[in-house]
Amino acid sequence: MPPLPLLVALADPTRCRIIEILHAGPQPVHVLTSHFDISRPAISRHLRVLKQAKLISEKKSGRENRYALHAGRLKPVLDWLDTMAAADKPVSEPGPAAKPALVAASAPPIMGPPKPAREKAASQMGFDF
Predict the structure, then answer these.
(1) Domain span at residue 42?
(2) By the 8 A CB rule, do 45 and 125 touch?
(3) Angle at the Cα of 98 from the Cα atoms of 97 and 103, rounded to 5 degrees
(4) In sequence order, what DSSP letters do the residues of 17-64 get, joined into one string?
(5) How far is it, in rounded angstroms, from Cα 112 to Cα 103?
(6) CA 75 to CA 79: how far, in whole Å?
(7) Helices 13-23 and 40-52 sit at what angle, rounded to 10 degrees?
(8) How far apart are CA 9 and CA 54, in angstroms?
(9) How far apart are alpha carbons 58 and 48 in whole angstroms?
(10) Quick check: is 86 in a domain?
């Protein structure tokens, strides 16, 4: 199962850039805001999404709030991507004995397995794609 809350948090280019900036070390919000052409409240909304996904944390330091990246929390994404990349290996062709029999034209279509119930969508905090 894909780590949807993490992927939703990373689905926005601004949030990905914030992650890249915080990779260098904890930063106050005014430093983060200086890297973008959007308002400080908009940056705060992006930070809230990243905090809800537990990718970053906020720590009060004097009059500033400093944001720090928790890079280890990206491991579920890496594990899932590794699994998907490993599943891309070619499958050998079945032998002649494994070929399916022809179905008569009047036979009803074969129904596949039931679809799994949809997961509850991860919060995007007002951000739409």
Answers:
(1) 4-73
(2) yes
(3) 105
(4) HHHHHHHTS-EEHHHHHTTSSS-HHHHHHHHHHHHHTTSEEEEEETTE
(5) 16
(6) 6
(7) 80
(8) 10
(9) 10
(10) no
Print pLDDT tens along the chain (129 aa): 789 999 999 999 999 999 999 999 999 999 999 999 999 999 999 999 999 999 999 999 889 999 999 999 999 999 999 999 987 766 555 555 555 554 444 555 555 555 555 555 555 555 544
Domain assignment present for 67: yes
CATH number of the domain to which 56 belongs: 1.10.10.10
> Does residue 129 belong to any structural domain of this protein?
no
User: What 3-state class would DSSP assign to 67?
Assistant: strand
Amino acid 104: pLDDT: 47
Residue 95 lies in a domain: no
What would you measure as the largest C-alpha separation in the chain, in angstroms?
A: 77
The tally of domains found in the chain comes to 1
